[in-house]
Design goal:
By secondary structure, the chain is mainly beta. The protein is built from 3 helices and 32 strands. It is flat.
Length: 419
């Protein structure tokens, strides 16, 4: 058994003295590379790859959304590092914050850029591995025309344009067709400007917003209303389309008419909140269609609505409006051009106490009550309450349960004396 033990000890020592074989360049492999957002997989055993890019994608991104290179290795024997150089030996940044323009060495005719990717081990005894990446960049497109143009959902007829003019690289086109934006169009959820270039790689911006307030340059999500043009049907909004090669066309809207709803509202709300049927809040100087107008009225805090009146340009005097069964008010504005809506409010009935009492768990000496509502208060042991006013006129009745008193159907101000 001693011999067996000796053999086991020797075997263990031999294992501990064993040194792993040094890593070699075969342990380094580039699996993929991402250039300007386009991922390129590199087949196993290959040391070259290519990628096709449009001129626009190869250029520096003004929004900073594109990266040059993303790469990683498989089966690294030790730590690794990656570096990239272009055809001139200049280092290329490989982080997502590097936005180098890959087209810098080319003309707008396009061409090929060759990069060398070096993958090396932190172990200096391991030879680095080099990969050749060929980037084929297409010719810069020259198309700076619009395929379609919509203003608040209304299509602009691009065929009704003046003769293109301007200098080399810049073309101006006047869109002479009058674009009419109805009040309903203007109130819609459509974009102020929805411009589609013929070439998807072209860039559309608003050079001049014009009198009607088109979306400013770079804001392709603006759905707010255009400015009313007062029927003059004139504007000078300029929509610019820039092609990949830098040439551009400027489309000028020479005749834009933005209509508005015919009825102007003069609102006197006295603190009340007036809402249209769709839940939006009415404001003074709003404009609405000449049709039935339905709205609701919410009183201010501690107030009640005593009267709702309307007066159109055909009414001699203000006319009281009665709420429907659902609490809303409806006014017929057919044929009207103006309507004055007046909300009259008054304080809710107030119950006052000559000393502090508990109302809903809080010590108070007065409380407002919704008209025809009730108020419950609690006295201390030995106290009595003398409720002013007249039952049937100022309130309905009084319930007393020990020290808890409830005044029901409060209609007018009431003073309560505690003794």
């Amino acid at each position: 058994w001693l011999e067996k033990l000796w053999d086991e000890v020797m075997a263990q020592q031999a294992d501990e003295r064993t040194v792993a074989p040094p890593p070699t360049s075969s342990d380094l492999a580039l699996k993929s590379i991402t250039i300007k957002g386009v991922k390129v997989d590199i087949p196993e055993g290959k040391t070259s790859a290519s990628v096709d890019l449009s001129w626009k994608d190869a250029k520096n991104s003004s929004t900073g959304a594109l990266e040059n290179v993303g790469a990683y290795v498989t089966n690294p024997a030790t730590g690794t590092s990656i570096s990239v150089t272009d055809g001139t030996g200049t280092t290329v940044g490989i982080t997502s914050s590097d936005k180098d323009d890959i087209t810098e060495s080319l003309t707008t005719a396009g061409g090929q850029v060759v990069w060398t990717v070096k993958v090396e081990s932190d172990d200096a005894t391991v030879d680095p591995v080099f990969y050749t990446i060929r980037i084929n960049i297409a010719k810069a497109d020259t198309d700076s025309t619009l395929k379609s143009l919509f203003i608040k959902g209304v299509e602009v007829d691009l065929t009704k344009a003046g003769t293109p003019g301007g200098t080399t690289g810049a073309v101006t086109i006047d869109l002479n067709d009058t674009v009419v934006i109805t009040a309903a169009d203007n109130a819609s959820d459509e974009l102020k400007v929805d411009a589609t270039p013929t070439n998807p790689k072209a860039v559309v911006t608003i050079k001049t917003a014009g009198a009607n307030g088109l979306a400013i340059a770079g804001d392709a999500t603006d759905k707010s209303a255009l400015t009313y043009s007062d029927g003059t049907a004139k504007d000078d909004s300029v929509i610019k389309v820039t092609a990949e090669d830098g040439s551009y066309t400027e489309y000028t809207l020479k005749s834009v008419k933005v209509e508005r709803y015919p009825v102007g509202i003069t609102l006197t709300d006295n603190g009340a909140t007036v809402k249209y049927a769709d839940g939006t809040t009415m404001a003074n100087n709003d404009r609405v269609p000449a049709e039935e107008l339905t709205f609701t009225v919410e009183p201010p805090a501690n107030k009640k609505i005593t009267k709702v009146e309307k007066k159109t340009d055909s009414d001699g005097t203000a006319v009281a409006v009665t709420a429907g069964t659902d609490g809303s008010y409806t006014v017929d504005l057919t044929g009207a051009t103006t309507v004055a809506i007046t909300i009259t409010v008054a304080d809710n009935p107030e119950v006052t106490f000559d000393q502090m009492v508990l109302v809903n768990g809080k010590a108070v000496n007065s409380v407002f009550v919704v008209e025809n509502g009730s108020v419950t208060f609690t006295l201390q042991a030995g106290q009595m309450a003398n409720v002013g006013g007249t039952a049937g006129t100022d309130y309905t009745d009084i319930d007393v349960d020990g020290l808890t008193w409830t005044i029901n159907g409060v209609k007018n101000d009431i003073a309560v004396t505690i003794s």
